[in-house]
Amino acid sequence: MRIDILSAVPELLNSPFEHSIMKRAQERGLLEIKAHSLRKWAINKHGQIDDYQYGGGAGMVMMCEPLANAIDELQKENGKYDEIIFVTPDGKRFEQKDANTLSLKNNILIICGHYKGIDQRIRDIYVTQELSIGDYVLSGGELAAAVIIDAVGRIIPGVLNDETSALTDSFQDNLLAPPVYSRPAVFRDKEVPAVLLTGDPKKVDAWRQEQAMERTKTRRPDLLK
Ligand code: 6GU
What we know:
Layout: E1 2-7, H1 20-27, E2 32-37, E3 50-52, E4 60-62, H2 64-78, E5 83-93, H3 96-102, E6 107-112, H4 120-125, E7 129-132, H5 142-153, E8 186-187, E9 190-191, H6 201-219
Parallel strand pairs: 1-2, 1-6, 5-6, 5-7
Antiparallel strand pairs: 3-4, 8-9
Bound molecules: 6-chloroguanine.
């Protein structure tokens, strides 16, 4: 899978993908991530990519031409994108099922907004999905894009091995994950639940299921509806 990102501040996207699972996904050739600076398509030598909004009001808007020229050029180079995603607080809330669907695509483009957002016509003409990562406002779309790419990248087939299988993650079955324990068996007088030491996989599974249900009921009852 190939993911291109268009950003006014591509430096923000340097380190999130250079470690751990995202690094391995790229090393295994399963994921290719490329962040492009929108300034490359600026309308003048001052690097301008934003302008005042029609109708007045505070805040700049990212202009049509840099975005359109960037998208056209990238599509000419890389072929048509399966999805062109604009990350924005007024988008649809990004959830695990969106990550699952996106993980099966071949190439996607993510547009990061800044300031007051991007000219509506780019959204009308090019964008196929608008995603928000939650009900709060970030200063730009880059961190949201990084969150989405991490959630998608880690479940691309072949990225995780058995021990880290995505199938046991919270949310994959609409349940939160159960508690986990490692050595030592007793820490500050607190013991690991005895069932986990029985070596009986059926009992362990039943306990985990029950704990997952209990956690979900108390913390996220909305998931059970
Ligand atoms: Cl996608 N962008 C920004 N700027 N803020 C957000 C967001 C996105 N999702 C939640 N807050």
